[in-house]
Backbone:
């Protein structure tokens, strides 16, 4: 399909973890959609599962032809709203869309390096983490934010007890690693 036939691109905010569902519905309605995601391995109960995670959590990109309008996008299941600035939707430049398309394969799956994968790792609230760098290296703390999502400044808040008190300290996700929990069974310590 020719790029001129598609129309301008816009960012659409989805409901939490509804990017795939919204993409499917929009494509059924004839919209061109760019949904970037990546594969992530998750260990649970001694099994490793592969999950698809959004490259831009809660956002997809939709091309809207003048004949289609925004009503169909905003009313789509899984979509919260098209991103607006005042009363006008914010158009994403076609150069940005082309650059994003280059990152993914033909279905939008992006291959992450191990470093990128560790930076995107999400921690659970209360999860124990070890600090790997800086003056607080070696200390153990607990994740404070909801699901350990990054703040707007790209940091995770960690609750640390030190100096006879407690503090919440921001860290980059790459500076943290999960603490393996020790389990004691029949007098033996397993880690």
Residues:
């Amino acid at each position: 399909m020719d790029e001129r036939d598609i129309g301008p691109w816009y960012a659409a905010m989805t409901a939490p973890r509804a990017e795939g569902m919204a993409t499917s519905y929009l494509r059924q309605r004839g919209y061109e959609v760019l949904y970037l995601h990546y594969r992530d391995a998750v260990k649970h109960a001694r099994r490793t599962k592969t999950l698809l995670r959004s490259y831009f959590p809660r956002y997809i990109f939709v091309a809207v032809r003048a004949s289609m309008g925004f009503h169909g996008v905003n009313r789509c299941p899984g979509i919260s709203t098209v991103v607006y600035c005042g009363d006008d939707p914010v158009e994403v430049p076609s150069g940005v869309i082309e650059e994003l398309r280059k990152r993914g394969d033909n279905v939008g799956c992006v291959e992450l390096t191990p470093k990128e994968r560790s930076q995107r790792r999400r921690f659970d609230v209360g999860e124990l983490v070890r600090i790997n760098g800086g003056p607080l290296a070696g200390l153990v703390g607990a994740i404070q934010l909801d699901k350990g999502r990054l703040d707007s400044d790209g940091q995770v808040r960690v609750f640390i007890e030190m100096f006879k008190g407690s503090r919440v300290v921001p860290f980059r996700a790459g500076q943290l690693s999960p603490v393996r929990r020790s389990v004691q069974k029949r007098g033996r310590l397993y880690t």
